[in-house]
Structure formats: structure tokens, C-alpha cells
Specification:
About 75% of the residues lie in helices and about 0% in strands. By secondary structure, it is mainly α. This is Exocyst complex component.
């Protein structure tokens, strides 16, 4: 039952579903029937059969309804057909009429249609044109601005081009951004910015290269203007100090003053006076810097530009500060070096003031401090190679102008002036070397003879060059001779020239008169105490300088010493510093010339002694001669004549110098003669030789007593030969008893005879005597004992003890003869 019920239920449900599907098929569009039919097959497996059955049943129902309806309306349908057939003929007529009418209408409206089409086409074109104009009015400003941008780029107006780009991007392009060309334009603008950036950077690099090439010219112009300014100020100060009127007007760089009713122009001889004053901006186009700065500022990359510019300028500064290896050889090398540095910093100063923040004062100060250290090191090194004082002086002037130029631009230059003091010492050294050559040349060309003066004009010419005043010489008649030689006024003039040369370096150093005076005096002291003194010392030591030249050198140094006070006055007149000032340095010329004079005096003594030795070497004594020739030896007479003529030249020397030279010569002569007697190579000497030697000593004593040099008191000069005289007298007189008896007493007649000296000479005499005695035995008599007595006494191991013993024996009453006999017998034993 249940199964039957369930089957009935399912059948009822499927029938209901089929009804619904049939209703959908009837009510929906034919195109949508497919899904509905598909649902039939999606249900139960055999559902479509039942659906087909149901469908067939529905079709049969509809057919019955259609048949019923047709049967119901058939008479009316027939009537309608009949009426339609009646109307058909009328409709055909009407169709013909309508067709004819339409044809006529078409023929009549064809032209109107064509005109209407033309009107429509024109209105479409008009509408398009209006739209186009409207759109073009929006695009034309963009295109105009872009065209303007291109023109600005072509004319290198990059800053304006960037402003135009800003307007395009912010105002014009947004209005027409939907157009393709605007999109392309918008994409092009960043590339153009980068291109402008690159071009401006390239221009900046060209500018940096340009100013590196033009730095020399810029610096030269700036330094020339600074020099002209300094020259003008110096001229104004000079006018003020000399009481000249102030300038009335200036025109074209010339200063006109009125004096004595006349107009005078200063600087008229300067070629640069009429030149237009040029600045760095006149020589270099700075627009690339400004342009690049503005461009990078607009692009928002100013910091990058500033860093790049500063970095490049630092590199250029290092290149500018690198000198050429041969810069020290000429002043042009230094000038070019300074011009480049000045040009570099003039450009930086212009950039500092013409731009806002591209370079700062701190940056320029850093550059300058770095440059200043390098400049000082370079100048200190290269100036040390300079041996020409003129070059050093020109270098100093360049440094002063260099410092003044940069000081005018606000750079501190105190260290440069400190460097000048170092260079001043070097300048003085080069001056000293130069003047050493000058002094040597003067000394070499000097004839070392008094200056002959033929007339008043020549005399005035000499005293105008050298401060010489001598009342006695002025009273003499012309021609006459001045005591000094030609080198004295030349040396004096050269010392003054040295002072002038030293003064040139002190100019423009911004130092007080007292400091300049101190510099001059110190440098002059160096000239006198080192250079001139050294030249004099070398001159005195030269072998070709004879006694006459040495005497003249002493006279010259005396006059130069006296002229030192005039040099003091000369420096005082230059610096206007009173010599009574506490800190004034004194000239050391007095000590210099005294030392030179003392050296010359010592050299005179040495050369005199050498000359005496040369004459002594000519001595040729016959030491075994039986008796003397009765006259002095020829060599000695020549020597005495030489000394006499030499001492006559000494009349111009100071008295003490001549006396000392004469005393030294006599002492040396006496010593040389004594050494000749006591020469160890001389073994025997006869009494005749002693007598001949005595004649020579007598001539020496006569020479000494003739007062070859005035000023000696009494027999002072003769005392030089007292040792020889007493020794010769002892042997000539054979006064041994007196010698032995008075030995050691202050009143002894032979006080200056040394026992060893007497013994040595006695040995030589006894040696000769014994040789003669061996040849002539009859000579061995009591006289031999008399000869042996002094020998035996002096030959004792301690003669100073044996002699008193002899005296003691004598006091006891034993005669000298008996003592000699005893001694002789003892000697024989």
C-alpha cells in the first residue's frame, strides 16, 4: 500500500512539474525554450516520455480549441475576405497613385535633399570647426610656451627656460593633459631640465677653465692698480712732507698741482696713467656662474652646485700655488706666480660679493690660510736660491705689492710681512756677498800709494767723495799727495751705496724710522765687521802684498776708522733718528779697522822677519879665518840699507807701529845672529871669525843708534843687541875672570850672557883651538890652561854651582892661574 501511495505521489508531482514546464514553453520566447526543455531531461530517467505524452495531450487540446474558434469565426472570416478582395482593386489604384506621387515628390525633393545634405554637412563642419577652435585656444598657449621654451634654450637663456617649464607644468599642460602631444611634452620637460643642468655645468667648467687662464691677467691688472695707488699715496705723502700744495684736481689718473703759478702733472710719464681702470668683471664673463647658480637654485639642487664649485676651486687653488721649478731664476717667474694667485682670489672676492652664499667668507678665509702657508713655504724655499740682491729686492717689491693688493680685498697679510723680515736677512747676505766682490776688486785695482793731487779741482773731487780734513796738507802747495790710497774713498762710497741698497729693502715695510735705523745700522755693522774685515784680512794675508802695501793698508784703515763717525751721521740724516736715542745701535767700524790694522801690523812684523831671514841666508862666514877682514859683511850692509829704506816708509805710520816694527826687526836680527853662532852644525869657530862677527854686530848697533824710527828713548833700540854684545865682548876681551866673579850679580858686566850660551860658543872655539894645537904642538903651553879654565868651570854638570866654588877658591887666596894649572893637571891625569 505504501509503495502504491508513494508511486501515486510521485506521479502527481511529475504531472504538476510537466504542467509548469508547458506553461513556461507557452509563455516564454522561443529562444529561451532550450533551458526549459533541458530541465525535463534533468529530472527522472523516464520523465521525458511522460512529458511527451503530456505535450501531445496539450497539443490535442489546443487543436480542438483552434478548431472550435475557427468554426465560430468562419463566416466573419469569409466576409472579411470578400471585403478585402473589393478593397484590393482600390488599393492597387491607390498604390499606383502613391507611387506616382512619390516619384514626383522624389523628383521635386531631390535638389532640396542635396541642399539639405550640404547644409547638414556645413553645419557639421561648422560645429567641428568651433570645437577645434575651442580646443586650439586651449592648446595654442601651451604650444606658444613650448616654442618660447625652445627659443630660450637655443639662445641659452636657461634660467628663463626653467621658469617657462614651471608655467607649462603648473598652468598650461594640465588644461589639455588628455592630448597626446601634451603627454609627450610633459615627458620631455624632465629631460630638458637635465639637459639644461648638463649644459650649465659644462658652461661652468668652461668658465673655471677660462678664469684659470685669465687669472694671470686679472692679477696683473689688480697688482698694477695697487702699485699705482701706492705710488700715488707716496707722492702725496712726499708732497706733504716737502710742503707742496695739495692736488687741485685729478684727471685720467694724473694729479695736477699748482706751484709758482704753473700747473704740473705727476705721473705724466707713466704709460698706464691714461688706461681705463679694469676690474675682474671687465676681463672675465661671470654670467656662467650666475646662470648655473640660478639654474641649480630653481632645480632645488643648489647645495650640489655649491659643493662642486668649491671643490673645483680648491683644486685650482692647489694648481695655482704650485710654482715652476725655475721660478727663482728671474723676477718674471715670481711676477707670474703672484699674478695667478692674486687673480684667483680677486675672482673669489668678486664671487663672494656678487652671489649670495655660493662662497662664504669662511670658505675664502680657509682658502687664503691654506694658500698663505703654501706661498710662504714656496717663497722661503725659492728665495734661498737667489744670489742676486737686485732679484731679491725686486722679489721684495713684488711681495709688498702682492700683500697690498690682497689686503685691499680684505685678506690678512701680516705673515707675508713677517716673511719679508726673513728675506731681508737673506737680502743682506746677498748684499754682503756682492759687496765682498766689490771690495776685493777695489783692493785688487788699488796701487797702494798716496793719492796724487795736481790741482784744487782734483782735491775737491777727492774730499767730495771722502771726508778728509788735514790742515797741514791743505796748506801745502799743489801738486801734493793725500796719505790714503785710491781704495779709501772708493770703500767709503761703496759703504754708503750699501746703506742705500739696504735702505731700499726697508721701504714700504710699514716700519717706524727707529726700526729702519736699527736695520741699517745692523746691516752696516755686518758689512764692516764681517765682509770688509774679512776682505782686509784676506788682503793682508796675500803673498804678493809687500811691506809698502801693508804700510799703506794701515794708513788706509786709520782714515776709514776716522770716517766711521761720518757714516753714523749719514745714517742719521737718512732715517732722521737721533744718535742719542736709547736703542740706537752703534757702528762697530772702529773695532773692525783696529783689528785689520793690528793684523796688518802683525803681518808687517812677520814679513820684516821673513826678509831679514832671507838676508841672513845669504851670510857666508869663514868660521876658521885667522883674522877679520876689517869691514862688515856685505849681506849685513845690504840688510841694514833695506831696513833703513823700509823704516823711511814707516814715517806715515802711527809712531808706536813704526817703533814696534823697528824693535821687532832688531830683536829678530839679534836672535838670528845669535842662532847663527850657536848653530849645532857649526862645530869650530876661530877668534878671527868672532872678530868678523863682532864687526857685523857693531854695524847693527850703529844702525840702532842712528834712530831709524823716531821716538825711542835713549839706547832702547840698542838693547836688542845687548846679549850679542856682552857675549862677543866676553870672548874678544877674554874677560872670564870678571864674568865668573860677577856672575849672578845685578851689576855684572856680562849679566846678559847665559852660561850655556857661553859654554856652547866656548866649545866651538876650543874645538877649533885643539885642531890648530894638534897641527902645532908648540902651542900647548900655559895659554891652554888659561883657555881650559872657563871651559872646565862651565862644563861642570851644574855650572851655576861650579862658578861660586871657583869664586870661593879665589876668595881663599888661590890665584886663577894656579887653579887652572891644577885643573889642567887633573884633566891630564
Amino acid at each position: 500500500m505504501n509503495k502504491t501511495n508513494m508511486a501515486d505521489a510521485e506521479t502527481l508531482e511529475s504531472i504538476t512539474e510537466h504542467e509548469r514546464i508547458l506553461q513556461e514553453i507557452e509563455s516564454t520566447d522561443t529562444a529561451c525554450v532550450g533551458p526549459t526543455l533541458r530541465s525535463v531531461y534533468d529530472d527522472q530517467p523516464n520523465a521525458h516520455k511522460r512529458f511527451m505524452e503530456k505535450l501531445d495531450a496539450r497539443i490535442r487540446n489546443h487543436d480542438r480549441e483552434i478548431e472550435k474558434m475557427c468554426n465560430f469565426h468562419h463566416q466573419g472570416f469569409v466576409d472579411a475576405i470578400t471585403e478585402l478582395l473589393k478593397v484590393r482593386a482600390d488599393a492597387e489604384k491607390l498604390m499606383v497613385q502613391v507611387t506616382d506621387t512619390n516619384r514626383r515628390l522624389q523628383d521635386a525633393g531631390r535638389e532640396v535633399t542635396a541642399q539639405m545634405e550640404e547644409v547638414i554637412r556645413c553645419r557639421v563642419q561648422q560645429r567641428n570647426m568651433a570645437t577645434t577652435v575651442e580646443k586650439l585656444q586651449l592648446c595654442i598657449p601651451v604650444l606658444e610656451m613650448y616654442s618660447k621654451l625652445k627659443e630660450q634654450l637655443e639662445s641659452k637663456r636657461y634660467y628663463a627656460a626653467l621658469k617657462t617649464m614651471e608655467q607649462l607644468e603648473n598652468i598650461y599642460i594640465p588644461r589639455v593633459s588628455h592630448y597626446r602631444f601634451c603627454q609627450i611634452m610633459a615627458e620631455t620637460l624632465p629631460k630638458l631640465r637635465e639637459e639644461i643642468k648638463d649644459i650649465s655645468m659644462s658652461d661652468l667648467k668652461d668658465f673655471l677653465e677660462s678664469i684659470r687662464k685669465h687669472s694671470d691677467k686679472i692679477g696683473e691688472t689688480a697688482m698694477r692698480q695697487a702699485q699705482q695707488h701706492r705710488t700715488f699715496n707716496s707722492a702725496v705723502q712726499k708732497q706733504a712732507s716737502m710742503g707742496f700744495p695739495k692736488p687741485l684736481y685729478t684727471l685720467n689718473g694724473r694729479t695736477s698741482t699748482q706751484q709758482n703759478g704753473l700747473d704740473t702733472e705727476e705721473g705724466a710719464d707713466e704709460d698706464d696713467a691714461d688706461e681705463e681702470v679694469l676690474t675682474a668683471q671687465d676681463l672675465v664673463d661671470f654670467s656662467p656662474v650666475y646662470r648655473c647658480l640660478h639654474i641649480y637654485t630653481v632645480l632645488g639642487d643648489r647645495e650640489t652646485f655649491e659643493n662642486y664649485y668649491r671643490k673645483q676651486r680648491k683644486k685650482q687653488a692647489r694648481l695655482v700655488l704650485q710654482p715652476q721649478s725655475n721660478m727663482h731664476e728671474t723676477v718674471e717667474g715670481y711676477r707670474k706666480y703672484f699674478n695667478q694667485i692674486v687673480g684667483f682670489f680677486v675672482v673669489e672676492d668678486h664671487i663672494l660679493h656678487a652671489t649670495q652664499g655660493l662662497v662664504t667668507r669662511a670658505f675664502t678665509d680657509e682658502l687664503w690660510n691654506m694658500a698663505l702657508s703654501k706661498i710662504i713655504a714656496v717663497l722661503r724655499t725659492h728665495s734661498s736660491y737667489c744670489s742676486d740682491p737686485d732679484l731679491v729686492l725686486e722679489l721684495k717689491n713684488l711681495i709688498v705689492i702682492f700683500a697690498d693688493t690682497l689686503q685691499g680685498y680684505g685678506f690678512p697679510v701680516n705673515r707675508l710681512f713677517d716673511l719679508l723680515f726673513e728675506i731681508r736677512d737673506q737680502y743682506n747676505e746677498t748684499l754682503l756677498k756682492k759687496w765682498a766682490l766689490v771690495f776685493r776688486e777695489i783692493f785688487e785695482l788699488d796701487n797702494y800709494s798716496p793719492i796724487p793731487v795736481e790741482n784744487e779741482e782734483e782735491y775737491r773731487s777727492v774730499i767730495s767723495r771722502f771726508p778728509f780734513h788735514d790742515a797741514e796738507i791743505e796748506k801745502q802747495q799743489f801738486p801734493k799727495k793725500l796719505p790714503m790710497s785710491q781704495s779709501v774713498p772708493q770703500i767709503y762710497i761703496q759703504v754708503k751705496e750699501f746703506i742705500y741698497a739696504s735702505l731700499k729693502f726697508s721701504e714700504s715695510l710699514h716700519r717706524s724710522s727707529t726700526e729702519i735705523d736699527d736695520m741699517l745700522r745692523k746691516s752696516t755693522n755686518l758689512l764692516l765687521t764681517r765682509t770688509l774685515s774679512g776682505c782686509l784680512q784676506n788682503l793682508i794675508k796675500k803673498p804678493h802684498i809687500g811691506l809698502t802695501e801693508l804700510v799703506q793698508i794701515i794708513i788706509n784703515t786709520t782714515h776709514l776708522e776716522q770716517a766711521c763717525k761720518y757714516l753714523e751721521d749719514f745714517i742719521t740724516n737718512i732715517t732722521n733718528v737721533s744718535p742719542e736715542t736709547v736703542h740706537t745701535t752703534r757702528l762697530y767700524g772702529l773695532s773692525t779697522f783696529k783689528d785689520a790694522r793690528h793684523a796688518a801690523e802683525g803681518e808687517i812684523y812677520t814679513k820684516l822677519n821673513q826678509k831679514i831671514d832671507e838676508f841672513i841666508q845669504l851670510a857666508d862666514y869663514e868660521w876658521g879665518m885667522a883674522e877679520s877682514d876689517g869691514r862688515a859683511s856685505g849681506y849685513l850692509m845690504d840688510l841694514i840699507n833695506f831696513l833703513r829704506s823700509t823704516f823711511q816708509v814707516f814715517t806715515h805710520l802711527p809712531g808706536k807701529v813704526a817703533q814696534t816694527a823697528c824693535m821687532s826687526a832688531c830683536k829678530h836680527l839679534a836672535t838670528s845672529l845669535m842662532q847663527m853662532l850657536l848653530d849645532t852644525e857649526l862645530k869650530q869657530i876661530s877668534m878671527g871669525a868672532i872678530q868678523q862677527f863682532n864687526l857685523d854686530v857693531i854695524q847693527c848697533e850703529l844702525f840702532a843708534s842712528s834712530e831709524p824710527v823716531p821716538g825711542f828713548q835713549g839706547d832702547t833700540l840698542q838693547l836688542a843687541f845687548i846679549d850679542l854684545r856682552q857675549l862677543l865682548d866676553l870672548f874678544m876681551v877674554w874677560d872670564w875672570s870678571t864674568y865668573l866673579a860677577d856672575y849672578g850679580q845685578p851689576t855684572s858686566k856680562y849679566l846678559r850672557v847665559n852660561p850655556s850660551t857661553a859654554l856652547a860658543l866656548l866649545e866651538k872655539y876650543l874645538s877649533y883651538f885643539f885642531i890648530i894645537a894638534s897641527l902645532r904642538p908648540e902651542c900647548l903651553s900655559a895659554s891652554l890652561v888659561i883657555l881650559l879654565l872657563p871651559f872646565l868651570c862651565l862644563a861642570n854638570a851644574n855650572p851655576l854651582q861650579s862658578l861660586p866654588r871657583v869664586r870661593t877658591l879665589g876668595c881663599e887666596g888661590i890665584s886663577l892661574r894656579s887653579f887652572a894649572l891644577r885643573a889642567a893637571y887633573g884633566a891630564a891625569a
